[in-house]
From TrEMBL:
UniProt GO MF annotations: 2 iron, 2 sulfur cluster binding; electron transfer activity; metal ion binding
UniProt similarity note: Belongs to the adrenodoxin/putidaredoxin family.
PROSITE patterns: 2FE2S_FER_2
GO biological process entries: P450-containing electron transport chain
UniProt keywords, alphabetically: 2Fe-2S, Iron, Iron-sulfur, Metal-binding
Pfam families in UniProt: Fer2
Cofactor names: [2Fe-2S] cluster
Lineage: Bacteria, Pseudomonadati, Aquificota, Aquificia, Aquificales
Organism: Hydrogenivirga caldilitoris
CDD domains per UniProt: fer2
Residue ranges of every copy of the 2Fe-2S ferredoxin-type domain listed in the record: 2-96
Name under which the protein is recorded: 2Fe-2S ferredoxin
Amino acid sequence: MPKVRVLNLGSQEFEGIENQSIMDVLYRHGYELDSACGGHGQCTSCKVIVLEGMENLYPPEFEEAETIEEKGLEENERLACQAKLNGKGDVVIYLP
């Protein structure tokens, strides 16, 4: 099972499953992220910085890609509500 490790939460690891968003993984383990748009990929309140394992996330879908472009996010920044594990490995993130 792929894991999401959060560096600024004491490097805690949270197990996830393929096609599960980072936000869902964290929520399932009792950690809630802000989401002004309700998890629809239209804001950046759930933005995370991917430090390792970007290749272990599916590429951004239309809504997230549009928001990334409009808001000027960096290459290593994703929206936790939209960034989904592809099941191929672990992801290390930082919560800004």
